[in-house]
Amino acid sequence: MAFELYQDDLNTSPQLTYVDATAEETYVPGELLKISAAGTATKASGTDAPVYLCNTRKTAAAGDQIQVIRLQRTHKLRTTLSAAGTSLKVGNKVTIGADGLEATATTTGGTLELVTIIDSGKGGSVIVRVQDADAPSGT
Fold it and tell me: Same domain, yes or no, for 82 and 39?
């Protein structure tokens, strides 16, 4: 499962925008993205702080743009766990899976704050909020 917008604490519509894509990168809806050193959108993973949620399915060519949702701290996202998270607790911050489509059960350097744990098994659903790596939980 990919990330999907679950709730906005402010009950506003998500902010759609277009950003420059990385040439030859394949994008899928629900993938978390960051901005690369080249200034183009690329997959977020591990301890990256994601900025966008991809809203496009395509393999980009040079000069292409993709539609994305600009992530805010008020957004809650639903996704799945790439590994069992039986020791996870609400408030833990976990990392982003290598595919940019799931949360991991790793808490070191995590940027996804667990808001709700629906199922802690591998592939289980969780609700997360994007955080900066150094931000305290609950902000």
Answer: no
Task: Give the domain range for residue 46.
Answer: 12-70
pLDDT at 67 over 70: yes
pLDDT at 23 over 70: yes
How many helices (H) and strands (E) the chain has is answered by 0, 12
Say which DSSP state 21 is in. B
Listed residues 70, 88, 119: the one ending a domain: 70
CA distance 54 to 50: 11
Judgement on whether residues 87 and 122 belong to the same structural domain of the protein = yes
pTM: 0.91
Cβ neighbors of 14 (< 8 A, separation 6 or more) are 5, 8, 53, 69, 70, 75
In DSSP terms, 1 is beta-bridged to none
Going by pLDDT thresholds of 50, 70 and 90, the confidence category of residue 132 is: low
